[in-house]
Amino acid sequence: MEKIKLDQETKNSLINAQKNEISEYFLYHKIAGGLKDEQNKRLLKDIAEDELRHYKFLKSVTGKDVKPDRFKIFLYFWITKIFGLTFGIKLLERGEETAAKAYEKLGETLPEAVDIKQEEDEHEHTLLNMIKEERLEYVGSIVLGLNDALVELTGALAGLTFALQNAGLIALTGLITGIAASFSMAASEYLSTAAENSKKYAVKSAIYTGTAYILTVFLLILPYLLMHNPFLSLLTTLIIAILIIAFFNFYVSVAKDFNFIKRFTEMSAISLGVALLTFIISFGIRSFWGIEI
Fold it and tell me: Counting Cβ atoms within 10 Å, is residue 263 exposed (0-12), middle (13-18) or buried (19+)?
């Protein structure tokens, strides 16, 4: 290839992109080595070979041999282990804006760079969407458990906070209510899913729904177990609810390519709206009947 004259900024961008490509080559091979699913293993190895080819192309342009980023490989390997294959890889691919700009700049003088950018956008995106991962097949069940727990329990805790005004009593009442509701929700999910799918799928759906529900219950009740002031506990619970909504919607927006802002706003508005309404109703009931505990 004929030597291309590059300004320092473009050269630095290309070297950075080159480092990303070789890092991702080693990362995908490392992840693939620990997979049992043959299709997922093959897909990751295909993507890895693309990354290596891109690296070699950039090396021919910059004339530099770049070492992989070992920390990046370590970090994203464990992200995929903890949060799932699809989430980890799509999160990694989201951070490629610098490389994309470098390819666009290089494309002004070298058409092959445009082809690589297209491949990054199309081929790898297609391969990533072909990855099979069980937890993503049950996202609907997780959403059901998570959303119901957030809406029902934030509302219940808001009402109980004003009605009872005793952190320990509120925690006990909320915990009993939450555990009972989690079993009820899991059973309902099993019955509704069993009518449409296999019993095996229905059992797993029920487990995902119930688990998401009960984990959310414990997180929301935790402030009442750790604090004596019920109103401060309620405020902390609402903050935890917002953090749960933010984290889960970020996860789904990356893994399933959903709109984060829209889903986060909807879930937050519903949960906080129900909590506020229940708090007002409890205030009215307590004032009307003059109940003191």
Answer: middle
Neighbours of 63 (CB within 10 A): 10
Residues 282, 286: Cα–Cα separation, whole Å: 6
Give the span between the Cα atoms of 226 and 229, in whole angstroms: 9
pLDDT for residue 156:
82
Q: What is the pTM for the complete model shown?
A: 0.70
- Cα 252 from Cα 42, distance rounded (Å): 24
pLDDT, one tens digit per residue, over 254-288 is 877 777 788 788 878 887 787 777 767 766 665 55
Q: Report the C-alpha gap between 118 and 138 in whole angstroms.
A: 32
Give CA–CA dist 148/139, Å, rounded: 14
Token code pair at residue 106: 């290089």
Q: Is the CB of residue 156 less than 8 Å from the CB of residue 115?
A: no
Which of 151, 252, 144, 152 shows the shortest CA–CA distance to 207?
Answer: 144
Residue whose C-alpha is closest to residue 230's, from 156, 171, 275: 171
Q: What does the angle CA 82 – CA 87 – CA 91 come to, to the nearest 5 degrees?
A: 115
Give dist(CA 110, CA 97) in Å, integer. Answer: 19
CB atoms within 10 A of CB 23: 22
For the chain, the residue count is: 293
